Write a sequence for this structure.
């Protein structure tokens, strides 16, 4: 009876979460993450400083059943103005189930005056450097560092793994990244909204944030995941980047779904949402193929 009640409550809260995702994303994420934590509690080490700025904090979800686990650093999306690391417990839960130690950092966002490109890429580089130096203390293998990002976060991980200036600034190189997953990322676009214009402007600087301009064949292996049903980010972003990676002999893979919306691409990381499409498993298969036995 107890198991049945837990199952029913889980279904009800998930339904409520789905409604709130439509009407109030923050409330929906809170409901979803609270439910996941009740049904599948996982220890988290919260608000660890990876830099001196007040927003430079990260959460760590250490792998529980695997020792010296591969590490996945997840950069969330939110159009460069929305979202917090604690709202992505569900993404961390998806990958800890697969045997990863997961790190979710916060980064600077609009409307802060400091939230102009490339400040958030520099934040991600600083977080990666902190992880490289410290993750062995949290059941993570510093030689197996993977990056994943959704939407704006996918743009950030793509910039980090193609334009090596940000890694050099923190004493790292592209060889320190074992693999990258870009989920529904806007890799080459012209800002046309007040937020993106403020973040990436003036117009003369737009070429600096175009990932297409940096592919030179030295990139770490990259998997790009997108959906033909995504109406927010054009499919040309994935197609164009994948073509450039292939032309430059970068180990790369493309996965194209047919029914997932832009938001589905991140919620379907978690097994509670997946149907025939399993975004986290597709990423995991690619990453596992890169790990040297």
């Amino acid at each position: 009876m107890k198991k049945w009640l837990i199952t029913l409550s889980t279904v009800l809260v998930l339904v409520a979460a789905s409604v709130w995702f439509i009407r109030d994303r923050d409330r929906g994420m809170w409901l979803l993450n609270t439910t996941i934590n009740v049904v599948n509690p996982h220890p988290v080490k919260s608000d660890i400083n990876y830099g001196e700025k007040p927003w430079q904090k990260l959460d760590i979800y250490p792998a529980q059943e695997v020792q010296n686990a591969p590490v996945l650093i997840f950069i969330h999306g939110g159009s460069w103005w929305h979202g917090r690391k604690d709202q992505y417990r569900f993404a961390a839960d998806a990958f800890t189930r697969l045997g990863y130690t997961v790190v979710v950092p916060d980064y600077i966002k609009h409307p802060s005056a400091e939230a102009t490109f490339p400040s958030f890429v520099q934040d991600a580089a600083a977080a990666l450097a902190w992880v490289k130096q410290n993750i062995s203390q949290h059941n993570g293998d510093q030689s197996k560092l993977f990056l994943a990002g959704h939407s704006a976060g996918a743009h950030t991980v793509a910039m980090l793994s193609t334009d090596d200036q940000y890694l050099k600034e923190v004493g790292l190189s592209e060889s320190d990244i074992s693999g990258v997953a870009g989920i529904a990322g806007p890799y080459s676009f012209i800002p046309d909204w007040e937020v993106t214009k403020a973040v990436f402007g003036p117009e003369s600087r737009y070429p600096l944030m175009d990932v297409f301009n940096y592919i030179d064949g030295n990139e770490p292996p990259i998997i790009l995941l997108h959906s033909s049903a995504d109406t927010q980010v054009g499919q040309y972003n994935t197609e164009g980047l994948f073509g450039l990676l292939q032309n430059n002999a970068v180990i790369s893979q493309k996965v194209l779904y047919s029914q997932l919306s832009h938001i589905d691409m991140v919620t379907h990381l978690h097994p509670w949402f997946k149907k025939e499409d399993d975004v986290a498993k597709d990423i995991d298969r690619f990453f596992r193929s890169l790990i040297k036995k």
